Amino acid sequence: MSFSTQRALPGLGNGSAFWQRFSVGQFLIFLVALVGAGVFYIWSCSQLIELGYAISSCEGQLMELKREENCLRLEVATLKNPAHLERVAINNLNLHYPEPHQVIIVQ
């Protein structure tokens, strides 16, 4: 009895149906297509993650800009207030109400 240390893998030998059906070139094309699909899948996942971070950053900027807009609207409302305008006119611009003799009534 002689024992062989090498065994042929079932279905992948030289005369197997796999190699009879497909040539080496076709197998390599399939393998390259499979690797390309895997690379594309990984790239698209990384792009999705990157876009998620970009969206999160933009949402943070949007919240900050909305807060700033609210502060500016409050400041505009304060500056348009007649009482505030009167204080600025009297204190900063040295404007005063006219004396009765300075008023001319036009008829």
What labels would you give this structure?
107 residues, 0% strand
Short characterization:
The chain has 107 residues and is mainly α.
Structure characterization notes:
66% of the residues lie in helices and 0% in strands. The chain has 107 residues and is an all-alpha fold. The chain is built from three helices and no strands. It has a domain at 27-98.
Task: Break the fold down into its secondary structure elements and pairings.
Layout: H1 17-21, H2 24-79, H3 82-91
Determine the number of helices (DSSP H or I, runs of at least 4 residues).
3
> Judging from the principal axes of the Cα atoms, what is the shape?
rod-shaped
Task: Work out the helicity level.
Answer: 55-70%
Q: Rg to the nearest angstrom?
A: 42 Å
Mean pLDDT value: 87
Low-confidence sequence ranges: none
Percentage of β-strand residues: under 5%
How would a textbook summarize the main sheet?
Answer: none
Helices and strands, in order, run as HHH
Note the gap between the termini.
138 Å
Give the total of beta strands: 0
Structural class: mainly alpha
